[in-house]
Amino acid sequence: MSFTAQVKDELSRVDGECPGCAYAQLSAITRVCGTLSFRGSGRYSIRVATETGAVARTMIKLTHELFELETPLTVRHSNLHKTRNYLIEIPEQDELEADLIRLGILLPGQGVAPGVPQELLGSPCCARSFVRGAFMAGGFIADPRGDFHLEIAVTGEDFATGVVELFQQLGVKARLNRRRGSFAIYVKSFDDIVTLLTAMGARRSAQAVANVRRVKSLKNDVNRRVNAEIANQARSTGAAADQIQMIAQAEKVIGLRSMPPALREFCLLRRANPDLSLAALGQRCNPPASKSAMYHRVLRLQRLMGEADGSANEQ
C-alpha cells in the first residue's frame, strides 16, 4: 500500500466533530472527484471514480447517512496496472437536486457553484472536514523517505483558490499551479505537511512523517561529521607530507644532531609516523606533548630553515 493510500485509509476512519462536518466532507469528495451530469429541468446524476477503496467507502457511507440516496457501486480491475477502480453512480432521483444544493455544489437556479461553499464551513471543524474530503478525493502525498511533497488536484480556479485559503486558515502555506485545465494545490514544507495531516485527523501519518524527518536529520548529521573528518584527514595528510619534506631538507642543511632535543624528537617521530595527526604524534613524545606544543615545534623548524636559507643567501 502506498503512503497516500495509508493516509487516506486513516482519514476514512476519522469522525466529524459536529453534524455539519459530514456535509462538508461529502461536499468536497463529490466536488473534487465527481462528475455531474444534467438532463432536463432538475434532472441530475453523478459519477464518482476513485482508485482508493477508503474514498469509495466514505462516499457511500456519508451519502446513505445524510440523504439515503441510491449509490450503485461498480468495482473494475485493471490487469495492466494491477489496480482496482471504484465507480459510484448516483442516478437521477427526485431529491438529488435539493441534496446537491444542501451540499453547496449547486446554486438554486444558477447551476454549479464556482467556489468553496462557505455556508458549510461555519465552524473550524467543518473547514478541517472539507479539507479532509478534498484530500481524500484528489490528494497525493509522497513517501516521506524520499521527499516531502503533498498536493491536491482540483478543477476550477475559484474552487482551487478557496481551498488554498482554507489551508491558510489551518496555518499551512500552499501554492497553486495550473496543470492542463486543472489546478494542483501543493505543499513542500515538512512543517506544513505535518500541520495539515494533523488538522485533517491523520495523526498517525503525521507522526510517521516526523519520525522519518528525525532519521533524515540524524543521517545528515552523521554524513556531515564523516565528511568533516575526511576533510580533516586530507588536510592532516597533506601537512604531514610537507613536514616530512621540510625535515629532509633540514637534515641536509642543519643536521638532526644539531637540533634542540624537542625539535629532533619531533623530526624523528614525524618521519617514522607520516600518517599520524599532530595530536596523536604528541602522545608518542617522552613526556607526551599537546597538539599545540607539536605545532609550535613545526613553526620552530620552519624558522630554523628560514634562518639557514638567509645565511646561505648572504654567503
Automatic annotation (TrEMBL):
Keyword Cell division: yes
Domain Sporulation regulator WhiA C-terminal: 222-304
TM annotation in the entry: none
Top-level division of the source organism's lineage: Bacteria
Sporulation transcription regulator WhiA N-terminal domain segment(s): 21-105
Keywords: Cell cycle, Cell division, DNA-binding
Record-annotated WhiA LAGLIDADG-like domain positions: 128-218
Alphabetized InterPro entries for the sequence: Homing_endonucl (IPR027434), Sporu_reg_WhiA_N_dom (IPR018478), Sporulation_regulator_WhiA (IPR003802), Sporulation_regulator_WhiA_C (IPR023054), WhiA_LAGLIDADG_dom (IPR039518)
Pfam families per UniProt: HTH_WhiA, LAGLIDADG_WhiA, WhiA_N
Role of this protein: Involved in cell division and chromosome segregation.
NCBIfam families: DNA_bind_WhiA
Family statement: Belongs to the WhiA family.
Protein name: Probable cell division protein WhiA
Gene it is expressed from: whiA
